[in-house]
Each structure stands twice: as structure tokens, then as C-alpha cells.
Design brief:
With 365 residues, this protein is α+β, with helices and mostly antiparallel strands. Helix content is 48%, strand content 15%. Strands 1, 2, 3, 4, 5, 10 and 11 form a seven-stranded antiparallel β-sheet that branches. The two termini are 33 Å apart. This is Putative glutamate--cysteine ligase 2.
Amino acid sequence: MTTTPTFGVEEEFLLVDPASGAPVPYNRAVADRAADAGVDLQLELTSCQVETTSDVVDNTADLRAELLRLRRVAATAAQQAGAQLLAAALPPTLPRAFPVTDTPRYRDIGERFGMIAHEQGICGCHVHVAVPDREAAIQVSNRLRPWLPLLLALTANSAIYRNSDTGHASWRSVLWGRWPSAGPPPHFDSADEYDAAVALLVRTGAMRDDGMVYWDVRPSANFPTVEVRVADVPATVAETVLFAAVVRGCVLTALDDERRGEPMQPLAPYALKAAYWKAARDGLDGDGVDLENHAAAPMTELLDRLVARIRPALEDVGDYDFVVSGLADVAARGNGATRQRRAWARRHDVGDVLADMATATLEGC
């Protein structure tokens, strides 16, 4: 490989009251303060959220430095505005409401989609990986579909919601699935077929516009990349960088398989749905669905098999040892969902969960 493919990351964060942990509608104030520090925060659908966007980089060390910087600036801006920044996919407390951000587009989405929009407060993580063109992005998307549940399990970080253990490691993914354009993408034979599907969803009102393509992997509308959107926002920068490295390895493997004409794994829709649900429910702490053999297998074993499958790509970009070490660390410490439940189990006090989340958000910063 003569050049190392570039990648970048978008992370969404909650803004909460430092004392109660309740979501607070301060995204504009936080964005204004971050802008003074040279960081452009994006406003999300609900006004208790902001999003950071990393620079485009070609290695995990630079990505880590960039994400640490962005979290540090965003957290300082939040503090200045009277809020606390949390890397959590859902608020652990019981919110009174999720006010929609006051822009014409977001107001229209709120009116069209009702409680799906107003019960939001959902924070994910999106990884962009450079690909040659949109046709390549479509074929990569097709080939990534069997691996998406594993990526969800790895990043699960929304076990505690509304002062309760949801019984799921990623309750975010369950709530997110209510949008008509969310979840795993269909298989598309071409970019033209993809565009026709998007046009139908817009034409019928299932989406307001093509900015509402919420599938868990999609060709980016703005960059020459494929965008993987399946993850909860990870609890720590280290976990985000690990996720991004695994995603890039998956994309490069899919590109290589496509170039060599490797046959695609048959994928029954009901099996993929079962794999998604198991990943959302158990995260790393239980069995997943082996989509090759249609059997249950420990999620950690399935992740190890994925790393073995993408090892050549990881070695090409110098990420193999980093990924192996990172997965071992997550297995030992637990991901965000595991740590949320550990904190919750101490006293069933959401304050313990909030304190743990706040520490994890700025770990290393």
C-alpha cells in the first residue's frame, strides 16, 4: 500500500446540569464559547447536544491528540456556559424534555416526526474513511453489514437511562431504530440504486431531506468517504480511537475483497436483526450472533475473529498491535456500558453513574 488512507471522527456529546445531571439546552452558548477557542461545534437536533469534528488524519496517534483537544475545549466551553460535557449515548437521568434546536430545519423535523424527534438526546460516533468514489462506498457498505453488530457491541455506552438500568448495553441503538431511515442499510447494487432509495424516502415523507439518511453506514454526502455511524459515542478517547482503527481496517478489507472479486457472505435479514439486538442487549458481556454459522458465540470471540479477518489491513497501516492491545484493555476494564452498570450497582444512585461518566469523558485530557 503506497499511501495510508485518511480518516476522521465526529463525536456527539450531552450537555447536563453539573449538579442534577439533567440535560440542559445550552448548545448555542457552548458553541459560542468553543468558537472563541478556535473549535467549531455543530448543533444537533436537540439543544442539549453538541458535536465535534476532527481534522482529517492518517494515523491513530494524531487522531488521539485531536480528539483529546476537542473534548478538552468542548468541556471547558460547557463549564463556562454552566453545563457539564458527557460522553454518554443517552442521559442517565430522567429528562423533563428534549427541546429541539431552534433552526428552521430542526423545527420542521420536530413537527414532522413528533416524539421520535422530541425524545432524542441520542449521541453517537461517526467514522469517515477515505474511499476512491461513491460506487466504492456503496460496495464497502454492503460488505460491512455483517460486522456492524460487533462494532455496536464494542462501543455500547447507554445502559443507564431515565434513572434505570435498561437491560441493554446500548439502549441508544434501540431508540435510534425508531427513525424510518435508521439501522443497517439495505444491500444496494449501485450508487444509482442507493440514490433512488433515498429519493423515495424523501418523496414519501419518511425523510425530510437526504441529511436524514441515518443508516449505520452510508456514503458521505459531503466528503469522498464512507461513513460508519453504528456506534454509541464511546466513553473515552482511547475507545473512540480504537473503534476508528477497527473501522478503517474493516473498510480497507472490504475494498480489497471487492477488488479481488471475493464473494459476499449471504446475510439473512432476520439473522442480522437478531445480531443487532444481541449486540444492543449484551454488549461485550454476553454472546453475539455468529452470522456465518447462524449460532451463538461469545462477543469477545467474534471480535477476535474480526480482528484476525482484517489483520492484513491493520498491519498495512501499522494499527494491528494498537488494536490488539486496545481490545485487551477494553476486555479488562469494560466499555462504557459495563462501567455504567458497575457504577449503578454500587448504590443504584445515578449520581455515581454521572461521576463515572464525567471522569471517563476527560480521561487523558
